[in-house]
Design brief:
The chain is of the alpha+beta class. It is 30% helix and 19% strand. The chain has 2 domains: 215 residues, DD-peptidase/beta-lactamase superfamily (Beta-lactamase, 3-Layer(aba) Sandwich), CATH 3.40.710.10; 100 residues, no CATH class.
Length: 411
């Protein structure tokens, strides 16, 4: 990496660290791979390296091109104490990958005429208000699903983690000073986002998770997909959350906290099921998610500039970052990348795809390691023919110099 000359500080001021300017490459369509199966095989080799490293407890991953699954695989342990292996049918928590299901269900109900994107939340939930009372009356379904409520980032998440009931925290949103007017800025939410579940109940008379099961899980054949901790633990094979224990890993009891905000973080599923979700999001199941609905779900609505600096691979590849409806939309070296990551205690998840090429991947793992997160940009770099960078820091001789790992974060 080239050195950047530091400017001398002005008299009477302190020198500030100036991060090096990273030249983001631009993908050349002529360099895009015509052999996606070969890219998937290379990714499979990287999974071997991760497995040998001991850097994760267990992980399941899949690579999809068009409507075809090129790779699906589990590595490591679903339960380190018993030795139960991760398979493609092992169920993981999806954390914030759940948000895209909430947006898709809302869109299906919009197509049914049960809701509108500009439906006012206060019309469906008359007791709802914010510190900006007038603004609360303007807040729409679309604002919720794109994190434009006007609240500070992650409002009341810490109280949720301390077992405060969701219903109490929603009522207390009126006590929070606004970060901006409703609809005017981005502020990532879990509690406010989950009001969409209440809106769905008010509009359909049915529980939110029943609607997702009926309108999305069942039509897509997602047989392991469920909501809630009881359903997770009742799965035939499920990945326990793990933390470091000496040279290995130790499982612990899953936390209940974010299951209380089901639309934001409540889904459980296997990687085999998420393959079907990925195919549908890339346009392969128009009977469930129509092309018009996908266009709406994937249309950016608000800038998320903080994402541009969030991890080394984002600093090295993203030109723009925005949020749509339950999805992040990135300009990834000149190509649109639709992405989301998630994190709850003991679990991490990432899903992403290039809509132009209908090429995507998903990874689910059951520990708080940041190691696997760098594999995703390595995969897309390979597919797009971009310069090779070892974003994950794996020991692989064919990959360029390490440029820093990427953490998934609670996206």
């Amino acid at each position: 990496m080239s050195k950047v000359a530091a400017r001398k500080p002005l008299p009477g001021t302190r020198a500030r660290y100036a991060p090096p300017v990273i030249a983001i490459p631009v993908a050349d369509p002529r360099a895009v791979s015509h052999d996606a199966p070969a890219i998937a095989r290379e990714f499979d080799g990287w999974l071997d390296e991760v497995d040998r490293s001991g850097g994760i407890a267990g992980l399941a991953a899949a690579v999809v091109k068009d409507d075809k699954v090129l790779l699906e695989r589990g590595i490591g342990a679903a339960d380190w104490s018993s030795g139960e292996p991760v398979t493609v049918d092992t169920v993981f928590r999806l954390a914030s990958l759940s948000k895209a299901f909430a947006a898709a269900l809302t869109g299906i109900l919009v197509e049914d005429g049960r809701l509108h994107w500009d439906t006012k939340v206060a019309d469906a939930l008359p007791s709802f208000t914010l510190a900006d009372v007038d603004g609360a009356q303007r807040l729409t379904v679309q604002d919720i699903l794109s994190h434009r409520v006007g609240l500070p980032h992650n409002t009341y998440d810490r109280l949720l983690e301390q077992d405060e009931p969701y219903e109490v925290l929603v009522d207390r949103l009126k006590e929070v000073p606004m970060a901006c007017p409703v609809g005017a800025c981005y502020g990532y939410q879990n509690i406010a986002f989950s009001m969409i579940g209440d809106v769905v109940f008010a509009s359909t008379g049915d529980f939110y998770y029943h609607q997702v099961e009926k309108r999305i899980f069942h039509p897509l054949g997602m047989g392991t997909a469920t909501y809630g901790r009881d359903a997770l633990e009742g799965s035939k094979s499920w990945a326990r959350p793990h933390h470091h224990a000496g040279a290995g890993w130790a499982p612990f009891v899953p936390s209940e906290a974010y299951y209380r905000v089901a639309p934001a973080a409540g889904v459980n599923a296997s990687v085999r099921d998420i393959e079907q979700w990925l195919i549908a999001q890339m346009g392969g199941r128009p009977d469930v998610l129509s092309p018009a609905l996908l266009d709406t779900l994937h249309t950016p609505l608000v800038e998320t500039d903080r994402e541009l600096r969030a991890t080394p691979w984002k600093r090295g590849r993203l030109k723009e970052a925005q949020y749509a409806l339950g999805w992040r939309i990135y300009d990834y070296a000149g190509e649109t990348l639709i992405f989301h990551a998630g994190a709850v205690q003991g679990y991490r998840a990432m899903i992403a795809f290039l809509p132009k090429y209908r090429f995507g991947a998903v990874m689910l793992w059951n520990c708080e390691s940041g190691l696997p997160a760098g594999l995703m940009p390595m995969l897309f770099d390979r597919y797009l023919g971009l310069p090779e960078v070892n974003w994950a820091g794996i020991d692989h001789e064919d990959v360029g110099d390490l440029s820093g790992g990427g953490g998934s974060g609670n996206d």
